[in-house]
Amino acid sequence: QVQLVESGGGLAQAGGSLRLSCATSGGTFSNNAMGWFRQAPGKEREFVARISRRALMKNYADPVKGRFTISRDNAKNTVYLQMNSLKPEDTAVYYCVAYSGSYYDSPDYWGKGTLVTVSS
Prior knowledge:
Blueprint: E1 3-7, E2 10-13, E3 18-25, E4 33-39, E5 46-51, E6 58-60, E7 68-73, E8 78-83, E9 92-99, E10 109-110, E11 114-119
Parallel strand pairs: 2-11
Antiparallel strand pairs: 1-3, 3-8, 4-5, 4-9, 5-6, 7-8, 9-10, 9-11
């Protein structure tokens, strides 16, 4: 069973930056594509970014393209989300996910989330 623990959330001002981390355990990290989702207050959960097992492929949701960067360190079993030029609409709980199947499948494992609040 893969376990995911997010960290790095908090309060940021508009235009600022935050870096989220997701530490994994219980599986072979390098076998899993990884990603991030978010859920804003009163809204449905949405895809943010995804990275393939060896970081050869990355995908981003349109609202974060050019501002967010996903990366991974397979030696540390950790995936990151660097968030720059933050906007108030980025306020959400951010969830780390792991894919045990195809890169384009739905996630199989979810973390508990970390809250990001962006003030204007």
